[in-house]
Amino acid sequence: MLNQLNIKKKYALIAASIVLLLAAYQFAFKRTIEALQLYHNLKQQVQLSGDLSYQPGYLERKNHNLDKIIALYKADTANFRSNVLSTISSIAQQENVALSEVPSQDPVYHSAQYIIEKLSFEGDYFALERTFNKLQATDNTGIIRSVAIKSVGKHTAADDSKKIVMEVYFEMVKN
């Protein structure tokens, strides 16, 4: 077929190499050159925009989430002995649990920012468990820091039965 066209081999080789070079540019070099240009454009935009580590949107979201967490710890410490204790005792009464001990404020449990209050409950294990779940779901009483459930024996002459005591430590932020 080439013999019939009367084309010299030298010109055919030049034409074939030009076609091959155009095909290689189209499939390989074109995308590489575009990516290199995009890299240089983005690098220039970064240099013009300044410090990207400062992200006000991220800082606002983080601050909002921290405020939500701190709100869990807040309780009115001035009225803790009246309003919050009445709320807690009503929850305990609903579950047939007795609020057995409310010790006086111990300065050992106070820090510069937080107050820890210890309350003791007596009752059936399952009733204590339901009381704990309701206390955990109740707002504005502080957050439960720790819970200890103990079985304590009554040593009286008439009765040697055991009672179950739940000690709950509430932590709250000072106002």
Kindly list the characteristics that best describe this protein.
Alpha-Beta Plaits, 2 domains, 4-stranded antiparallel β-sheet, alpha+beta
TL;DR of this structure?
With 175 residues, the protein is α+β, with helices and mostly antiparallel strands. It has helices at residues 2-5, 9-49, 56-73, 80-94, 125-137, and strands at residues 98-101, 114-122, 143-153, 162-173. The chain is 52% helix and 21% strand.
Describe it for me?
11% of the residues are buried. The protein starts with a helix and ends with a strand. The longest helix is centred in the first third of the chain and has 41 residues. Helix 4 crosses helix 5. It contains five helices and four strands, in the order ααααββαββ. The mean pLDDT is 80. The protein folds into two domains: 48 residues, no CATH class; 97 residues, Ribosomal protein S6/Translation elongation factor EF1B (Alpha-Beta Plaits, 2-Layer Sandwich). It is α+β, with helices and mostly antiparallel strands.
